[in-house]
Design the sequence.
């Protein structure tokens, strides 16, 4: 028994010692944090709900933006709460409710499937603002405290497509492939509008510089699956694709491309470190401008836009560093020229003159902009010779299968 | 002679089976294991993150008990895990390796979701709830019965069979999700009947999880009585201990296996019913979230005693809720909390060894003999 008591006492001492050691460092960190915070923003508290953690490129993109804005506004870690690995279930509602309990004035969720559960929380807590990325319901639900946001990422993907087209032209000129072998591969997560709009704009970008290009699309039916995305990249390459891009969140495809020495265009993060010899460029949504906008709105007591769409002009849609080691000569100039035209409104990504559906040019298309259970097409979206993407709501609604793209 | 002696000396550590340890002493060992685990975790926390371990532990605590909402949520999660643990327990007590609880619950979820989608807004609640309940119980029971029949009639391996049934259930659910998805192509069903709340379990006293918790509490007591005092509970225990004995005393083994798995699957079905109608109001392949496997650990940790299982499932829920809270409060990656949870579980399971076995060291005897020889 004595022995037993000795052991317990020894344990407690050890424990106290450890706690004592760590105490000092923690305190130091604490004082640093609070001294930075301005008096103006010291009452502000904001909570973020993430589907995964920083291992997913999609969520890392949001986390980086949140941290950037936190630093810019001088908020402490206690004022910016992160909830990671929150599935698209009632756990999202619970996470939002817990954030409200913790005193958050604003709650943001980053995944499409979070929307229903965030609306549930928004209805219960009318005094707290809820913002949701990629969602579709804010403009029809008309809740004063529930807001959607997205970006016209199709413009970014179009520009990334220009870089891809330039690279393919270089391959044709070098005699590596013939013009009719110019086939790109694309790995998409799910076959719905956000993904379709993304790969179509990427394809149109490439086609604008390389008219013979075609594209094969594969779906993984998952947002994050390293093995599946790698597998899809490998099978696209063996199907004869000479350049790969993807709209899924793992490093599977970029790594497969590096192993096979096939150029790759990524999304949301620069993959140059994963594939120094193959990573070409990435298009990316920078959420920092939106986070800054909503935080400032809460601070000033102003209303947050119900459905906000960031674009090239406000810094919400950006391209990551161009990998000069991979890119074809003149790529930067080509991208800059196209960007200038997009910004000036001279060029429209979904210009109906640039694509056909079953061999015909579209003159009218009704899209399902106002979500309802039966997906009734409700809004005419083609006018003035182009498809007006992300104008009637921020989330994409271009879901047309155009010629030149085959899906599996 | 000297050779014999040498062999005896080489046995430095001797492990022997203990008699039943005194009740308080065994719990003291478990407590010591937890304390040891916390100390080791403290080292890990300081070395990896540089945070104060006490701060980390206190945020784990507040993640579970920090507010009324958190307490309710912890209770709800404990109840769900306990319910699935109750379901697998009769099977394990019979030594039927049912690792298919995940799929059995999921198929119950699917049945409930289907009823909510097709009848939720047309049937009166008095009819709808019994239909939902019976459908999910039947679905779970059938899912467990298939491997049971194969095992009983043809002696197939139930471990592989039940495991594979999980994937069949998962694929079925993905199939139906693409069938019901809203909006098209998004691969999510969204909240079912979010306006009419058709098929949602009612709130009791303003608490949406209270009904679930009460159902599981009743199930726990029933399962305790069933295993301990009923003839059927006795029969399945005998089959688990020795099939030959069971055969000798005239127990119909095939019947017992199928009957036990029907009960096991039916309770899984109830868990699925509560998950979809009571908490989630939607369905995905992730609705059960691995609880079907965690439940196996709960069941074995508690040595198939439903009352002790309450404690074990609370402990596991506490660890996972605490892990989530650490990630939020200290901005640590959830992997850090998973490491801590792993260490704590390792110690808790490991200490059962010291409760069941006695370890004796022979250092002293050896050195003593040497001295004498010299």
Sequence:
């Amino acid at each position: 028994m004595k022995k037993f008591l000795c052991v317990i006492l020894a344990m407690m001492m050890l424990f106290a010692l450890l706690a004592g050691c760590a105490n000092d460092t923690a305190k130091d960190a604490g004082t640093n944090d609070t001294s930075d915070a301005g008096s103006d923003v010291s009452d502000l508290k904001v909570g973020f709900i993430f589907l995964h953690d920083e291992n997913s490129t999609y969520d890392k993109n949001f986390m980086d933006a949140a941290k950037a804005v936190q630093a810019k506004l001088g908020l402490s870690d206690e004022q910016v709460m992160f909830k990671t690995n929150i599935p698209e279930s009632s756990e999202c509602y619970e996470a939002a409710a817990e954030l409200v309990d913790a005193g958050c004035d604003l709650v943001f969720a980053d995944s499409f499937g979070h929307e229903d559960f965030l609306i549930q929380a928004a209805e219960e807590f009318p005094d707290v603002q809820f913002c949701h990325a990629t969602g579709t319901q804010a403009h029809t639900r008309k809740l004063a405290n529930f807001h959607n946001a997205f970006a016209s990422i199709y413009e970014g993907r179009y520009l990334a497509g220009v870089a891809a087209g330039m690279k393919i032209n270089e391959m044709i000129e070098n005699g590596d492939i013939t013009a009719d072998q110019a086939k790109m591969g694309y790995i998409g997560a799910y076959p719905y509008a956000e993904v379709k709009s993304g790969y179509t704009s990427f394809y149109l970008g490439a086609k604008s510089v390389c008219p013979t290009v075609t594209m094969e699309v594969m779906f993984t039916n998952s947002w994050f699956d390293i093995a599946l995305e790698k597998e899809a990249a490998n099978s696209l390459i063996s199907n004869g694709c000479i350049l790969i891009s993807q709209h899924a969140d793992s490093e599977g495809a970029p790594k497969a491309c590096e192993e096979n020495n096939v150029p790759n265009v990524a999304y949301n993060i620069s993959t140059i470190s994963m594939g120094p010899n193959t990573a070409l460029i990435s298009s990316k949504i920078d959420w920092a401008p939106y986070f800054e906008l909503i935080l400032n709105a809460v601070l000033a007591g102003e209303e947050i836009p119900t459905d906000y769409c960031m674009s090239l002009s406000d810094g919400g849609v950006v391209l990551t560093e161009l990998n000069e080691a991979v890119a074809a000569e003149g790529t930067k100039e080509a991208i800059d020229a196209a960007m200038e035209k997009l910004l000036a409104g001279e060029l429209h990504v979904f210009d109906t003159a640039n694509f056909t559906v079953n061999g015909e040019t579209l003159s009218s298309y009704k899209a399902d902009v106002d979500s309802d259970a039966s997906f009734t097409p409700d809004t005419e979206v083609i006018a003035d010779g182009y498809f007006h993407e992300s104008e009637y709501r921020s989330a994409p609604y271009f879901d047309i299968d155009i010629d030149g793209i085959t899906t599996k | 002679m000297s050779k014999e002696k040498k062999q005896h000396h080489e046995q430095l550590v001797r492990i022997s089976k203990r008699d039943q340890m005194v009740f308080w002493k065994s719990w003291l060992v478990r407590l010591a294991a937890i304390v040891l685990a916390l100390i080791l975790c403290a080292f890990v926390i300081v070395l990896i993150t540089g945070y104060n371990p006490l701060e980390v532990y206190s945020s784990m605590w507040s993640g579970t008990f920090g507010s009324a909402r958190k307490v309710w949520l912890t209770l709800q999660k404990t109840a769900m895990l306990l319910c699935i643990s109750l379901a697998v327990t009769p099977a394990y007590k019979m030594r039927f390796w049912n690792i298919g609880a995940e799929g059995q619950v999921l198929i119950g979820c699917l049945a409930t979701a289907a009823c909510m989608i097709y009848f939720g807004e047309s049937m009166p609640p008095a009819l709808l709830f019994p239909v939902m309940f019976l459908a999910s119980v039947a679905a779970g029971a059938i899912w467990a019965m298939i491997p049971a029949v194969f095992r009983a009639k043809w002696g197939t391996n139930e471990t592989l069979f039940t495991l594979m049934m999980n994937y069949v259930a998962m694929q079925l659910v993905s199939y139906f999700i693409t069938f019901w998805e809203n909006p098209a192509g998004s691969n999510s069903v969204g909240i079912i009947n979010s306006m009419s709340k058709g098929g949602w379990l009612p709130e009791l006293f303003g608490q949406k999880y209270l009904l679930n918790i009460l159902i599981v509490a009743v199930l726990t007591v029933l399962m305790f009585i069933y295993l301990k005092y009923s003839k059927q509970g006795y029969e399945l225990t005998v089959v688990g201990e020795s099939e030959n004995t069971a055969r000798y005393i005239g127990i119909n083994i095939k019947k017992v296996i199928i009957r036990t798995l029907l009960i096991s699957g039916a309770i899984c079905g109830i868990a699925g019913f509560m998950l979809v109608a009571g908490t989630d109001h939607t369905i995905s392949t992730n609705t059960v979230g691995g609880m079907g496997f965690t439940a196996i650990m709960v069941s074995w940790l508690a040595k198939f005693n439903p009352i002790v299982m309450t404690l074990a499932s609370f402990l596991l829920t506490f660890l996972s809720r605490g892990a989530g809270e650490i990630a939020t409060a200290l901005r640590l990656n959830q992997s850090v909390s998973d490491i801590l949870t792993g260490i704590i579980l390792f110690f808790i399971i490991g200490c059962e060894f010291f409760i069941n076995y006695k370890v004796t060291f022979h250092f002293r005897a050896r050195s003593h003999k040497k001295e004498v020889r010299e």
The longest helix of chain A spans residues 2-36. Chain A touches chain B through 47 residues (CB under 8 Å). The first strand of chain A starts at residue 46 and ends at 49.
